[in-house]
Amino acid sequence: MVTKKHYTIGMAGHIDHGKTTLTKALTNIDTDRLKEEKERKISIELGYAPLVLRDDLEVSVIDVPGHERFIRQMIAGVAGIDLVLLVVAADEGVMPQTKEHLEILSYLGIESGLVVVTKIDRVDTELLELVEEDIREQVQGTFFEEEELLFVDSLAGKGIEDLKNAVVKQLESLPMRNQKGAFRLPIDQVFSVHGQGTVVRGTVYEGIVREGDMLNVLPQGKKVRARQLQVHHQPKKEATAGQRVAINLGGETDQVQRGDVLVSTDDYIRTTTIDIELHTVKRLTYRLKQRSFIKLHIGTAEVYGKVVFFDRNELGKNETILCQLRLDEPIVTKRGDRFILRRPTPVETIGGGMVIDPSGERYRFGEKTIHLLQRKKEGTPRDRVVDVISKNHAISLQEIIKQASIAREEAEEALKTLTDERKVLLLGHYYLLTDLRQSLLGEVESELINFHEQFPLRLGKNKAEIVQSLLTVVPQKVAEAMIEDAVTNQLLMKTGQFISLPNFRPHFPQQWAKRMEHIVSEIKVQQLQVESWDQLLKNQQVPADVGEELKHFLVSDKQIYQLDEKYFIHEKILNERLKWLYEQTSDSFSMQEAKAALDVSRKYLVPFLELLDHLQLTVRTESVREWKRANVEQWINEKEEN
Predict the structure, then answer these.
(1) Alpha-carbon distance 222 to 214, whole Å?
(2) For the CA atoms of 203, 208, 210, 212, what is the dihedral angle to 10 degrees?
(3) How far apart are CA 264 and CA 613, in angstroms?
(4) Preceding peptide of 346 cis, ω within 30°
(5) What is the pTM of this model?
(6) Could you give phi then psi for residue 621, rounded to 5 degrees?
(7) Each residue of 48-76: pLDDT tens digit?
(8) 481: helix, strand or coil
(9) Structure confidence by residue, pLDDT tens digits, 163-212
(10) Which of 208, 228, 287, 562 has the fewest CB atoms in 10 Å of its CB?
(11) Sign of CA dihedral 222, 228, 234, 236
(12) CB distance 64 to 11 below 8 Å
């Protein structure tokens, strides 16, 4: 099976220079299909036809309107082509629109083309030589400069085979469009077919679309399905980059229009602010002022807006500048896309260029912004990935692709390299710079040092509080993942819900250490008949707030257990009294039996027995308690082992 390469060829040139007739001579198809076009003998809409050259080449020819009034269709058509045939009539030579088309072609990034001189039957040899000389002069400095001129008589078929051979030679040297990227098709035609619904046409810029695929219509964000595909009126199961395709859509199609973009993923963003490199035409009638109103032609979309300069207040002819467009409506674009700018009134082409960042921001006037835009323009995919991560602190792969405006493969390759070099790390579904992680962990470490100094008796700071302190920089999921990652790598320690430095252990503060030790000792010595907590603090002259910290620590560390609101028991006394009572009683026991065994008054006995209930060592039924033997024996064994 022959693997086909798909290309689109555009016909460009002045009105009535023979583009449609040449297309028919090449393809045997008349692309002037509209009644108005037939009557006026001019092309108004884009015309398409298949060109059969070789089995391994599938070529579409676009007959682009040449009249100035229809220049927007011309821009839309040229935007998707790989090779252009610039058509010049031998009996008229280079015309004003021909010159404008030349500039537009260069702005749209088209780098391959042939000049075709038509209607050679209408002139003699001497005039033909003058036309050739004029053409050579006009194409100097363009991609046509080194190409030979081809002379044809489309009606008689003279020179057509030579032209086809020249086209094949050009196409053989051209790379195919990116079929691995996310599918994107700017829509240039929308129409309805009875019984079928909405059909759209366009040239697949990149990627592949298959019958049945779910797609998004941007910028509206509508969901549609590719029900059927046709390439040159032939049903197809898929269409790939470089092909002209008609797609019968199902779903939310009521608002689909020319200028919309069909995409297959969420890799594309909707934007109203784009950073650009702009080249102005050589014959600009009026200087372009700061914040002038403009009309942007990009892909098949046309949007009004204004241009913003950062290093000047006006722009003249044949100049290059880094600037910004702020648009009235959202568009779908990505870095590297080409565009044309026109002045709404008086109507003229201002220039064109390339999108360097579809996610432009508000910048200050000055050289600093120009340096920023220059860096964006020159940056590699790796540079752009780093810039986007740095700007966002933490960001998903999907957002990196959108904001860096690069292909998924480029983003993944850059991220792998950066991750291998340990300059970037992945936490959960977010990427962040290693330097930022180190900086944030440094802040957490400082926070914990201060906390440990202020609260040396606590196990650490609550994780939720630490996460909260990081939310001004990174999302909650990233903050939580960063803390857990630090715990896993022993940079931090986690005890329950508390986070501490790895070398930290709760301890008595130096100025209160002896007094606190006396309190603990007193609780142990007093056994079951212990003084109230407030009295113990008073005995050692320990302030209430310090005493509260001590109590929290001793309880958390299970050195003491709370009997009631006022009284506490030392853990060793609890274990001793528990074991003694267990040995002195049977499966169940009464209050009187417990009192006799422990020899204490009800004042201290009742809280002790209730503590046993709370610890699930006993269960009370009216006036009798029953031992939960499995729990008691496990408790005693664990304490003896420790």
Answers:
(1) 11
(2) -90
(3) 63
(4) yes
(5) 0.67
(6) -130, 105
(7) 678 888 888 888 887 765 544 445 655 66
(8) helix
(9) 899 989 988 888 776 677 788 999 988 888 877 888 998 888 888 999 99
(10) 287
(11) positive
(12) yes
